[in-house]
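User: Um, any thoughts?
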Amino acid sequence: MKGLAHIGVLQVLVENEIFPDYIAGTSAGSIIAALYASGVSPHQMEEIVTSLAPHDYIDYNITGMIKYILGLIFPKYDYTLDGLIVGEKIENLVYEWTGGKKISEADLPTAIIACDIDSGQKIIFTNQALVQPKSQMIISNVRLSEAVRSSISIPVTFVPKEFHGMKMVDGGLKDIVPAMVTRSMGAEYVLGINLGKENYATDVSGIPQIIGRTLDILIYETSATEEKFFADMLLHPEVPDVGLTDLKEAAKIIRAGRRVMRENLSQLQHQLSK
């Protein structure tokens, strides 16, 4: 839900005739990146969001939960529970929204970040030829919907995405704001949007919120150095702590993105003019 702030940022940019030449996204940001790279306008994105209901994109892993409980009751019945949400519904939606495009067919240079939970390797899905360390893997033969499904797989909340023998989970574990990747693609100026820096004014409850807050705390510190060196401007939309089903907060979150971009628009235009 917090990722909807990216829509507001893009809306203000487009309204002021500032069109990104490159786009990269991690976790929720990968959804917005994939849609924008497929030609979906930021205002169309808002229309898509406002037409959704939670059951459209959340498919609870009921079968997995039942099997896991049976395994606890009958020890011989061995089954591990890898996540609470299957993730097929949201992957199918992204496939529909992006027209089933492969990342190689995206309208502009694009990168989406994920992580192989078994090896800890950073995975970069991209249509660009990048030179990266051996600790990272570049994949270009993939559908945008597959890359997004890999990048959004919050550990424990989502079942990891099986991809070519790897188990893909949320790219935020490795790179919450992919500023360096954007720079590696060729961007001369990088605008970064970080949704993880919060004042923690609200309490959390429930597995998804607790996991999300835990990742925010861990990831923000590890990403700060990269953002400092590779992002020319870094914005922090003031978004509330929300759960996966809090669609009633969608308009507020999009407005938060619009607000932070409007507040920094003059500075951005001045820096770009240089």
The two ends are 35 Å apart (CA to CA). The mean pLDDT is 91. The chain has eleven helices and ten strands.
